[in-house]
Structure formats: structure tokens, C-alpha cells
Design brief:
This protein is an alpha+beta fold. The chain has four domains: 143 residues; 119 residues, no CATH class; 172 residues, no CATH class; 139 residues, 2-Layer Sandwich (Heat Shock Protein 90), CATH 3.30.565. The chain is built from 14 helices and 21 strands. The chain is rod-shaped.
């Protein structure tokens, strides 16, 4: 392969790589665009759905006639907040009572039910149930020392043991702020507890106590004083009739302890990561919003957005539902209804790129691998075509040189003997010259015929016209013909059977193999031809042949150096190989025990 061809081949390969790379990039870009935009549309739908759920949930928040909000406020707001406190931020506002409650840095804890008592206890007292309360991060953190905080962090950061046991933080004793003027119903932690638990433990009673942490703050001191007063008041009254109503634990004063079931767990994420600046809360403070109901998507950068929705709702259900048919709704009722109207503002941050990143990475990796495989296959196919073309070009050059060499010798002989024939007067000498010229012309004619045969066999239109014929008869006929013109003894051993093949082409195969064996066999040696169990073979004694030379034998116009003095065209075995290829037969060549054996199967 010359430099020009190498340069052209290099350009072709570079072009293939560039085209495959371009298509790969287009495919990856299209996939990324569709994946990102579909994730973005799904996020928008989820944002609207979550905001509507928050609005609907606000109808269950109770605002008293004094503008107080019960413990369900933060709980209901928290129900539609994700673990990531920066992903959702909700505010409930009532301008008439100057009321504002949000869910930032708060944890909703579901506690056990209690029978609550205030200043007196009687058998017909109203029973209320406490389902849960919210814990403010800053109230929790400010009531403990740094030493306590660090020790609890060490517990929570400990890896599970070999049995799957791990540590959790529980609010062992707490107060509910229902007695202060604010009446926020906030959970005020008084004592924390480290528990050893596992996935199989559902109730508090199943866990193992490890360590208590007593907290202190101004609020805790006030609650303890109030608790003492309530306990003294409770002693003044007797409950005469106890029934199922009092099977529940009784809350005496604001301080409660953990029950047997609910663990009052403070999550690890809230305890360690809480108290950070809420991004959405900061956003709400720096962006003024109109009072009108509206929904909007506010882009933050190229790959994230904040969905904001404002709605007005009245937590005390629909006004008409509080009246029986026929009753009149007074102006005071309408005024009270309007006074309790609340504005719910929800902020939600979405990052479609971050959410779709795993899909993008996996999908683009699959696309990249796919195109690498496709590109590699294309390069191999093209490379095979290029090398095949280069090999054919080398064969063409070799064939041209071989034909020129094979024709040059007889032409020189013919030219020289023609000159001698013109000057020679003797009859016998002239006859000798004529015989030599005819012999060389015959060799040239044989070479041309074999070249034409080889060219036809290499064409795509070449095919075998198969028919049945007796292989033993065919081989014996050929042996008889060649035994009459050579001093070599040809021995035939063949089964009397018919084979399906192109008779004319296979006869050409047998002739070339026999002629090749006659030319290159040792003096006074036999040529053995056999067809046993559908396997044809021809063997003859000859000089040692290496494996490398055996491969070269089948190439056109390739003759071994030591056989240059033997007359021949160098194309016989190439014709044999091409005919066998048309019949889909693969020849086997080996040199063993001083003999060259060529064999193949025929059926």
C-alpha cells in the first residue's frame, strides 16, 4: 500500500469517525432535551397538584374567635412538605388577627392520645384527643448545651451494628404550649432520650433505653411551675365514676411523657441539619406578592424554577354548612366569617436538571456505547474493504508481473528461433526450430486459457451447475490418460459412488491437481489418488515444504523458488481453490512423511 493510498484510507476513516460522532452527539442532545423538558413538565404538574392539596388541607385548620390556631396548623402544613426543607415552604396568614404561621424549621411529631384536664375534673368533662404537635428547631436547640448536642450527634451518626440495631432520638417528656397567651400549641421538649431500636420495633416499649438528656429554658421553667399548680388543683377533685373514657392516660397540666406506643422520634436529618436558612423563606421575604389569587412559575436560573400559588380560604368550612335549613345568616356571622379568612401562600422549588441527571447519565452512556459499537463495526467493515482492495491491487500487480514474466520467456524463444529459422537451410534444424516455436506458442495459449478461466471463476456470475456423476469412473479415466503421457505411476483408490457437483469444473480441478503432482513429485515416485468416505485426496512425494510455503502455493502466479525451473503457469492451484469455493468446499493441505497431501470432502 503506497503513501497516497494510506492517505486516502486515513481520510475515509476520519470521515466515518466524524460522522458517527456527530450523529451520536445529535442523539445525546435530543435525548437530553426531551428528558429534561418532560421532567420539567412533570414537575409543573406535581407543583400545581401539591399546592392545591395544601389549600384543601387548610380547610381543616381551626381558628378560634380569639385568633388562635390549634396544633393542626403546622402539622397540616408539614404534611405536604418534603424531607428537604428547602423544597416546600408554606405560610398561613390572617390579617385581621395579625396571624402568621409557617412550616420552616419545624417538625411534626405524632404523639399518643390523652384525656386532657385543665383546672377541674368531673365525670362529665369534655374529652379531647391530642394527635400530634410540632417541634420548633430553635426551641429545641436553644434548650440544650453544646455538650449535649454533640453527644446526641455522636449517637445518631453511629453506624448500625451487626444485628441491625441503631440509635434514635426521642422526646421523652414535653409540654404543650396551650396555656400561654400565644397558645401556639408548640411542643416544648423537656427531656430527650436515646433509644436503641431496629426495623422490627414498632412501639416505644420495644426499644431499649440508653441515656436521658434533661433540657432547660425559660419556657421549660414556666411549664414546670404551671404543672405544679395543676397537680395541686387535681388533688382537690375526685372522679367517682370511671369508665372507658378514663382508660386513656390523663394529662394533668401541660407536661406529658412518652407513652408505650408512639416513639416521639426526632429525625436525624432534622436534629443535625435543621435550623439552616430556608431558601424559599428568604425568597418570600425578598419578593413582594400581590394579594390577588394567582399561580406563577418564577425561573431562578436556566435549570430550576420556583412555583408560587396564593389562594384565599376559610378554615371553618363553608359558612352555610353551619346552619340548619331556614335559619338566617346574620351580618355578624358574615363578619366573623370574613375575619377568619386566611391567605395560603405556597412556594415550591424544583430542579428538573438535578432530578433527571441519573436518567441523563445512564441514557447518554447507553447511547454512547451504542454508537461506539456501531462506529467500531463500520470502521472494521470499511477497513476490511480497504485492506481487501489493497490485497486485490497487490494481486493484480503480482499477476501482471507474473504474466509478463511467463509471456516474456516464450516470446523471446519464438523471436530467437524465428531469426535462426530464417537463416538456417537444413531441414532437420528448421524442423527443430518449428517444434520449439509451436511448443512455446502452446504454453502461451495454455496460459491465456487458464487466465480466462480464472477470471471467469472470480466473477460474481460464476456458479456451479451441479449434476450426479460417478467419481470412480471419472478418476480412472483421467488416470488412464495421464499414465499414457508420463512416466509417473498414478494409483487410483475410489469408492464406486455418485457425487453432486459441476462435472466440467471438477474435472478441471482433478486435472490441475494431477498435473501439479506430476510436475513437482520426486523422480520414480507414485502419485496416489483416493476417494474414500466422500473424501478426495491426492498425494505425491516431494522436497520438504514449510507451512509458509504451503499457504503461498494457493496464491495466483506464485511459485516456489526451487520450482522455477519446472514448466508451469503458477495459476493451477488458484483455479482449483476458486472452483472449490464455488462448490463451498474448503481444501486441506499438509506436508507429512515426505509427502504433500491435498484433500477435501465431496458429497
Amino acid at each position: 500500500m503506497n503513501k497516497k493510498q494510506k492517505k486516502e484510507n486515513r481520510k475515509i476513516l476520519i470521515s466515518i469517525v466524524a460522522i458517527v460522532l456527530l450523529i451520536c452527539l445529535l442523539a445525546m442532545g435530543t435525548f437530553s432535551y426531551l428528558t429534561y423538558n418532560s421532567t420539567k413538565e412533570i414537575d409543573k404538574y406535581q407543583a400545581e397538584l401539591k399546592a392545591n392539596n395544601i389549600i384543601d388541607n387548610a380547610n381543616y385548620i381551626d381558628i378560634t374567635n380569639f385568633g388562635e390556631v390549634n396544633s393542626f396548623v403546622v402539622g397540616n402544613l408539614h404534611n405536604y412538605s418534603d424531607t428537604d426543607e428547602n423544597s416546600t415552604y408554606v405560610i398561613l396568614k390572617n390579617d385581621y388577627y395579625n396571624l402568621s404561621v409557617d412550616n420552616a424549621n419545624k417538625l411534626y411529631i405524632k404523639t399518643e392520645s390523652y384525656y386532657t384536664s385543665l383546672d377541674y375534673f368531673t365525670a362529665d368533662s369534655t374529652v379531647t384527643y391530642n394527635y400530634g404537635n410540632y417541634l420548633d428547631y430553635f426551641t429545641l436547640r436553644n434548650s440544650m448545651t453544646d455538650e449535649q448536642y454533640n453527644k446526641i450527634c455522636d449517637y445518631l451518626n453511629t453506624e448500625p451494628d451487626e444485628n441491625g440495631n441503631y440509635y434514635i432520638l426521642s422526646v421523652n417528656q414535653y409540654a404543650i404550649d396551650i396555656f400561654s397567651e400565644a397558645s401556639s400549641e408548640e411542643m416544648i421538649p423537656i427531656r430527650l432520650e436515646i433509644l436503641l431500636t431496629n426495623e422490627n420495633n414498632v412501639w416505644y416499649a420495644q426499644d431499649k433505653h440508653i441515656e436521658y438528656f434533661d433540657l432547660s429554658s425559660e419556657k421549660i421553667s414556666k411549664m414546670k411551675e404551671l404543672q405544679k399548680e395543676e397537680e395541686e388543683n387535681y388533688k382537690k377533685y375526685q372522679i367517682e365514676n370511671e369508665d372507658d373514657l378514663y382508660s386513656l392516660p390523663v394529662q394533668i397540666g401541660p407536661i406529658l411523657s412518652v407513652g408505650k406506643m408512639s416513639k416521639n422520634e426526632v429525625t436525624k436529618d432534622f436534629f443535625i441539619n435543621g435550623g439552616k436558612e430556608n431558601e424559599l423563606k428568604k425568597f418570600s421575604e425578598s419578593n413582594s406578592l400581590d394579594d390577588e389569587n394567582y399561580k406563577t412559575y418564577i425561573p431562578q436560573d436556566n435549570f430550576s424554577f420556583i412555583y408560587t400559588q396564593i389562594e384565599y380560604t376559610n378554615p371553618n368550612y363553608v359558612l352555610a354548612s353551619n346552619y340548619y335549613e331556614g335559619e338566617v345568616i346574620t351580618e355578624n356571622d358574615l363578619t366573623a366569617y370574613e375575619q377568619k379568612k386566611c391567605k395560603i401562600i405556597s412556594y415550591q422549588k424544583y430542579e428538573p436538571l438535578k432530578e433527571s441527571m441519573p436518567t441523563l447519565i445512564i441514557g447518554n452512556c447507553i447511547i454512547l456505547v451504542f454508537f461506539i459499537v456501531i462506529g467500531t463495526m463500520l470502521i472494521l467493515i470499511v477497513w476490511k474493504n480497504i485492506t481487501g482492495r489493497a490485497i486485490r491491487e497487490q494481486q493484480r500487480i503480482a499477476m501482471t508481473n507474473a504474466v509478463a514474466h511467463n509471456l516474456k520467456t516464450p516470446l523471446c524463444v519464438i523471436n530467437g528461433f524465428s531469426e535462426n529459422l530464417r537463416e538456417e537451410d537444413g531441414y532437420l534444424t528448421k524442423q527443430h526450430y518449428i517444434d520449439v516455436i509451436q511448443q512455446q506458442a502452446g504454453d502461451m495459449d495454455a496460459l491465456v486459457h487458464k487466465m480466462l478461466n480464472f477470471s471467469k471463476l472470480e466473477s460474481d456470475s460464476a456458479k456451479a451447475n451441479k449434476q450426479l456423476f460417478n467419481i470412480k469412473t471419472e478418476l480412472e479415466t483421467l488416470a488412464e490418460r495421464y499414465n499414457s503421457i508420463t512416466d509417473k505411476n498414478i494409483i487410483i483408490t475410489a469408492d464406486n459412488t455418485d457425487v453432486s457437483a459441476d462435472k466440467a469444473l471438477m474435472e478441471l480441478v482433478f486435472e490441475n491437481l494431477i498435473e501439479n503432482a506430476i510436475r513437482y513429485s520426486s523422480n520414480n515416485s507414485d502419485i496416489e489418488i483416493s476417494f474414500i468416505n466422500h473424501t478426495f485426496s491426492v498425494s505425491n512425494e516431494c522436497d520438504t515444504i514449510s507451512k509458509k510455503d504451503i499457504k503461498k502455493m494457493w496464491k495466483p502466479y506464485c511459485r516456489l523458488p526451487r520450482n522455477e525451473e519446472v514448466r508451469g503457469t503458477g495459476i493451477g492451484l488458484s483455479i482449483v481453490r476458486q472452483i472449490l469455493k464455488i462448490h463451498k468446499i474448503k481444501p486441506c493441505t499438509e506436508y507429512t512423511n515426505g509427502k504433500l497431501i491435498i484433500s477435501f470432502e465431496m458429497k
